[in-house]
Write a structure and sequence with these properties.
Largest sheet: 4 strands, mixed
Number of strands: 4
Strand content: 15-25%
CATH class: Alpha Beta
Structural class: alpha+beta
Number of domains: 1
Order of helices and strands: HEEEHHHE
CATH architecture: Alpha-Beta Complex
Distance between the termini: 28 Å
Length: about 160
């Protein structure tokens, strides 16, 4: 179990120190800002969608390491993916964070590096940090406006 925790930590640290897809979106990108009033984390997700697929995905963050790493992991896994893939992954991430430690780990083996987010379960207050970029993107897709700002609570 200690090796698994160490792996989770190394992936989170790597994506925090060297975030992938970090920066402003290109011309014509939709921007959605998510804010967690509980801890002060703020992320901005920039994206374009072409034919129901994320064609350009980037983020900016003034946040803790967990929120930044989660946004980096999200953008990495969604670049070139469909909106339905996002919905599936977001559902799996939520289930992963809510699963007890005795649950069957095989259920989440298809998540790849995203499974590193399970490491935040040891710190319940960090769950909202890990979900912030995902909730921001979800609410932006549902909102359908060109630019949005959301307070993202723990629910």
């Amino acid at each position: 179990m200690a090796e698994l925790v160490e792996l989770y930590q190394s992936i989170i640290i790597d994506h925090n120190r060297t975030p992938r897809h970090y920066g402003k979106g290109g011309a014509g990108a939709v921007s959605a800002e998510g804010y967690n009033p509980t801890c002060g984390d703020q992320v901005t997700i920039h994206y374009k969608i072409r034919a129901e697929v994320f064609a350009d995905l980037a983020f900016e963050a003034a946040s803790c390491a967990v929120a930044k790493a989660s946004a980096s992991l999200m953008c990495t896994h969604l670049q070139g993916a469909s909106i339905s893939r996002f919905e599936h992954l977001f559902s799996e991430i939520r289930r992963l964070l809510e699963a007890d430690d005795n649950s069957n780990r095989q259920r989440f083996s298809g998540l790849g590096e995203l499974e590193a987010l399970a490491g935040v379960k040891a710190f319940p207050a960090r769950k909202s940090c890990a979900l912030l970029p995902w909730k921001t993107l979800q609410r932006s897709l549902a909102d359908q406006s060109s630019d949005s700002t959301f307070d993202v609570d723990e629910n």
